[in-house]
Amino acid sequence: LVHYNDIPETETAAMPYFNKLKEGRTPTLPPFTSKRSIRTENAGGPVTVHIYSKSETSKYEIYKKVIVKALKKTIKVWSRRDNKLKGDCRVLQKNIRLIKSPTAINGHNTNLEADDTNWAVSDPGNIFCQVDKPYFRNQTREPAMAICIENNDIFARFSEIAAQLEDCPLSIVYKAPGQLNGKIIVAGAAGNWQNGAGAINAANGHSFAKALEHVVGNDVTIKFLAYNNAPPRVPKVKTKSNSKGLIILSTNADAAAWIVHTVPGYPIPKTVYTWPAAETAKGHLLLCLTIPESQINAIAASLLFIQPMIHYNDIPETETAAMPYFGKLIKGEIPTLPPFTSRGSIRTDNAGGPVTVYIYSKSESSKYEIYKKIIVKALKKTIKVWSRRDNKLKGDCRVSQRHIRLITSPASVSGHNTNLELDETSWAVSDPGNIFCHIDKPYFKDQAKEPSLAVCIENNDIFARFNEIAAQLDNCP
């Protein structure tokens, strides 16, 4: 709506688009989106500015369909939002991450209820964008414009404001043997495995590094506990636990994550990201669950049974004072009276669609075999198992609808070949199913005498992707 103009026509005679603008003309033929660039006038260092716009005839949503598509990067968005559009982590490296409210601008507090600004920063980044429409569903039917400035310093200041993000609920990375790029699925968008954007041994640009950025970095607001039966830089540790993972929390927001993985000696806390070269030849799995901090105590209660080797913890007691099981976990306490098995459940932190996760664990005092006596018994279903196996435990088809069927090796993870000789992962899917389980012990007879843990995710899409790998089964003996 042009409400004032005193620019003489002599100044704009050679500007046809300016004349159309002041006359109120609009595009009537496609394309109904526009991408332009200008540069500021500064001989010392002109700044590139990209201008993205769409007419009301275009039904594109400007944040995802225009800005993300143009930048080819994830964006972190500060904007009022409705209850329809959510953060979007479906497309690798092209996510929309929503910045948490409230936040601070160099000491001045702001919140989405009172802030009329809409802006975004790229990730990875040097771009800041001002957007003239909020992150509402109905803006797809309206004209909109984004002005994106390519400047390291401006980007850095706004990126500081964007330090805390609302979480995408759950993601899984499967790195097949010999591969440096993993395959990725995200809960809520697991219609297909996606290719990893970068090599897993690179310092950044891939999901492993992104999940661990605050572990290898030095963010004073992020604290974590790390456990690994083969801790980094500590040779020949003796432990019956086989679990590897991290509990991460923010000290200035109700935000936490539980990462479960299979990689020995990894990651090295507070050190530049490194990937253990010997593990490239092997298959590995990483699960990242974002959770409210209230779920940490339930996780700790399950971990107590497996006696994890904790090699790093800087979570202050003030954050966990109301978490008695976490306190016992860091002190190394273990259950001395029955029951020696545990069943717990948590839910990921995503109002748009939280995912239920069941945690089954057993101590070494329990002589139960975790696959049949705990997982099958809890799920009341047959399970199909991908795991290294000894020559003692076989598939088991004795009890109707409570079978253990072994997945045939070799197999394929969306085009990446894997085999049991090189794959360190142990997992199962239910049959019939919507449940995927990661198990920290292989399908060996002697695991009945050792502590063990299974993390079982109830999600149709994640189940479907792993069930595809489980297409071929060994015959029951």
Automatic annotation (TrEMBL):
The keyword Isomerase does not apply. The gene is DNASE2. The keyword Hydrolase applies. Keywords: Hydrolase. Signal peptide: none annotated. One of its GO terms (molecular function) is deoxyribonuclease II activity. It holds the Pfam family DNase_II. GO terms for biological process: apoptotic DNA fragmentation. This is Deoxyribonuclease-2-alpha. It comes from Trichinella patagoniensis. Belongs to the DNase II family. InterPro entries: DNase_II.
